[in-house]
């Protein structure tokens, strides 16, 4: 059955992004540590594109261990993505320059429709490699409805950021979270667990695997979602 | 040099204790999952005492892997302990029954002086095996002063709970934290990271080792403590 899932990375102290996200610091100032386990993998190195906002080229071509397997798994059986605006590109407010097509270059690695939550309408942007960015201005339920239809029986992956994931968690719409806990402190930024009670929402930890640069945990919902 | 250190366990969602701690549920309702990695170790099984409030006897005598090594390390070079009241025994308010000598039986595993923070004075209690409980009513600085003197060049370990550790963190008095992250969600309870910014306080993650039932991280303070 088609699932709605989340793939995300948090720091030891529970932050999903550092403060002051911008084009220069897409994960916030100091937030790049959250991506280090990803950047080191062969899967990432192979999909990496010189047009991306963030550049992390490794001469060794990337590692092939546990972290690599977990990162590759994030893309398996995904038929559509949902992103907060910041995941398309760390710019806020009205679209000033529509020639800029986001942080992911001409060939984003998503290979499927990506539904971007925003308050500012914009025409869909077809990219190379199967990714099309669609801009959704009528909320999380409509985005999920469209993503589910586009996924055509495959899974919908909510890629972040923190605020987007929290909205879907509170609405009881997420079946499974695949979290990487990276061995770093951020101290401040966006708290992933914030004021959300994942036990009350019906989640338990069902898997726990140590990678080279992160610990991978799976949280699955076993109980009914709360009524809305 | 003598260090002030913390050894503690937190859940994936950052809680250091579950809600409603009591004699029946010393780690709060559902909080025992935090101890599972400890209970499984040979070191714990060997120090385990049938008089303790919590009983976790394993027929296999306990495991000897990475978790066991990390748990044993918590006791190395420790010359004195500091506990919040709840760590002595999960009872609150004035001492009603002084014949009760805490949750740790006649032979607690600490083998050194333990300074218990409380608002209620009580005579010191010498136990078998080298542990003596001293009750400190004049605050965290005085407790640390006495523990440092008693440790006589060895380390002082702050054993918890969350509130006690947070007070010492905010005061800039902790050199090192050894945290175990257990693969479970608590959903509610006492947030270990609460509103504390460990980066601003000068800590970085210096070690990250996967055990069988927990991930072990070391946080060390590299910068000067903030002025008080």
Structural description of this entry:
The structure is a homodimer of 228-residue chains. With 228 residues, chain A is α/β, with parallel strands linked by helices. Helices cover 19% and strands 26% of the residues of chain A. Chain A is built from 6 helices and 11 strands.
Average pLDDT score of chain A: 91
First-last Cα distance of chain A: 23 Å
Uncertain ranges of chain A: none
Question: Roughly what fraction of the amino acids of chain A lie in strands?
Answer: 25-35%
**Biggest contact:** A-B, 27 and 27 residues
CATH fold-level topology of chain A: Dihydrofolate Reductase, subunit A
What's the multimeric state? homodimer
Report the radius of gyration of chain A as a whole number of Å: 17 Å
In helices, the fraction of residues of chain A equals: 10-25%
Walk across the major sheet of chain A and give the strand order. Answer: 5-6-4-3-7-1-8-11-10
Number of helices of chain A: 6
Content-based structural category of chain A: alpha/beta
* Bulk shape of chain A: globular
CATH superfamily of chain A: Dihydrofolate Reductase, subunit A
CATH class of chain A: Alpha Beta
What is the count of β-strands of chain A?
11
Number of domains in the coordinates of chain A? Answer: 1
Largest sheet of chain A: 9 strands, mixed
Tell me what the CATH architecture of chain A is. 3-Layer(aba) Sandwich
How would you summarize what this structure contains?
By secondary structure, chain A is an alpha/beta fold. Chain A contains 6 helices and 11 strands.
């Amino acid at each position: 059955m088609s699932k709605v899932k989340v793939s995300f990375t948090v720091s030891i102290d529970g932050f999903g992004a550092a403060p002051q996200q911008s084009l220069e610091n897409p994960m916030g100032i100091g937030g790049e540590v959250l991506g280090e386990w990803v950047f080191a993998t062969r899967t990432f190195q192979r999909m990496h594109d010189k047009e991306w906002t963030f550049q992390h080229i490794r001469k060794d071509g990337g590692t092939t261990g546990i972290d690599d397997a977990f990162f590759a798994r994030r893309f398996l059986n995904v038929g559509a993505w949902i992103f907060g605006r910041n995941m398309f590109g760390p710019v806020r407010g009205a679209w000033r320059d529509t020639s800029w097509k986001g942080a992911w270059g001409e060939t984003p690695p998503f290979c499927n429709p990506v539904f971007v939550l925003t308050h500012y309408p914009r025409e869909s942007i077809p990219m190379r490699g199967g990714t099309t960015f669609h801009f959704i201005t009528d909320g999380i339920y409509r985005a999920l409805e469209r993503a589910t239809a586009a996924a055509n029986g495959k899974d919908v992956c909510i890629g972040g950021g923190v605020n987007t994931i929290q909205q879907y968690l509170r609405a009881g719409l997420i079946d499974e979270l695949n979290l990487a806990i990276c061995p770093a402190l951020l101290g401040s930024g966006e708290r992933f667990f914030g004021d959300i009670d994942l036990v009350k929402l019906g989640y338990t930890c069902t898997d726990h695997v140590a990678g080279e640069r992160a610990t991978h945990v799976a949280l699955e919902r076993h109980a009914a979602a709360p009524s809305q």
